[in-house]
Amino acid sequence: MTSTSKLSALFLAALSASSAVRAADNSADLQTLYQRRIPFIVQTYPVTGGQLQLSGWVNNITATGQWPDVNYTTGCPAQRANWPAQNHWLHTIPLAAAYTDVLPHSANITEKPPYDFVGNETVATVLNTAMDYWFQNDFTNDDCIDKGGLTNATCVCGTPGLWNTNWYSNVILIPRQAIQTALLLNDTVTDEQRATAVHMVERGATTFGRWVNGLGFITGANTLDISSNLVNAGIVQALHGNSTGFDLIQGAFDRVHNEVVVQTA
After folding, report:
1. How far is residue 126's CA from residue 66's CA, in Å, rounded to a whole number?
2. So what's the pLDDT on residue 114?
3. CA-to-CA distance for 106 and 46, rounded, in angstroms?
4. Helices and strands of the chain, counted as H and E runs
5. Contacts 24+ apart (CB under 8 A), 65-74
6. What is the pTM (predicted TM-score) of this model?
7. How far is 215 from 145, CA to CA, in rounded Å?
8. Helix, strand or coil for residue 212?
9. Which of 102, 121, 147, 177 matches a 20 to 30 Å C-alpha distance to 38?
10. 75: phi then psi, degrees, rounded to nearest 5
C-alpha cells in the first residue's frame, strides 16, 4: 500500500462489509454495515471520566446548547490546528453512545449507572440542544470550506457561522463527528438534524477534483477520510428509506478502491 493510502480502522470496518452492500441493496446488508460501524465510533471516543464526566456534560450544558468548558471561537481568530470547538462534539458523541447503550460496560460505566443515561429524556434533551446549536450555527457560505479569511474570497473574517480557516476542520473533522452522532442516535434524530449532518458530509466531498486552499488536491488518506464520512452519511440515509444513501455508499467504496494501491512484498 502506498504511503498516502493508509486505511483508518474505521474505514477498514466498513470495507469488510462492502461486498455485501455492493451485491444487493437490502436491509440485512445495510444492518451488517451499520453494526460494524458503531463499535469503532465508540472506541474512538472513550469516556475516560466515567459517570461523573457524563453527568457533568448533562448538567452543565447551557440553554443555548453550549458547554462552558468548550472554546467556541470561530473563523479567523480560532486556533487552526486541533480546533478547540470540536470538543462540543467530543461531549456529544459519548453522550449519544451512553443514551443508546453502546458504551462498553466497565467499572466506571456499569450496566445500570446511578444516572440512568440509557433512553433518559433529560439526556435526549441535552443531545438535541447540543446538535441544534451546531446545526443552526453551521456556516452557509461555501467559500468558508477552504477560503475562510482570504481577501479574494467571500468568506471574510467575521463571516457568520462555525468555521475554521483550516480546511480540514470544515471538510473532514466536524462533518465526521456530526454524522457519527447521527449514526449513533439513528432513529432518535429528527429529519432536519439528519439532513443537516448529511449535508455537512456532502459539502466536504465537493472538494474532490478541485484545488483545496492550503492543501492542493484531495488524495490518499484524505480521500479515505472523506469517503468514510460518505459511507456513514449513506447508512444514515438508507436506514430511513432514502435510496440515495446506497448511492453514497457505493460511490465512496468505488473511490476508495480507485485510490488504494495494494503492493505485494
Report:
1. 10
2. 46
3. 12
4. 11, 0
5. 65/129, 65/130, 65/131, 65/132, 65/133, 65/134, 66/133, 67/91, 67/130, 72/162, 74/161, 74/162, 74/163, 74/164
6. 0.88
7. 12
8. strand
9. 121
10. 75, -145
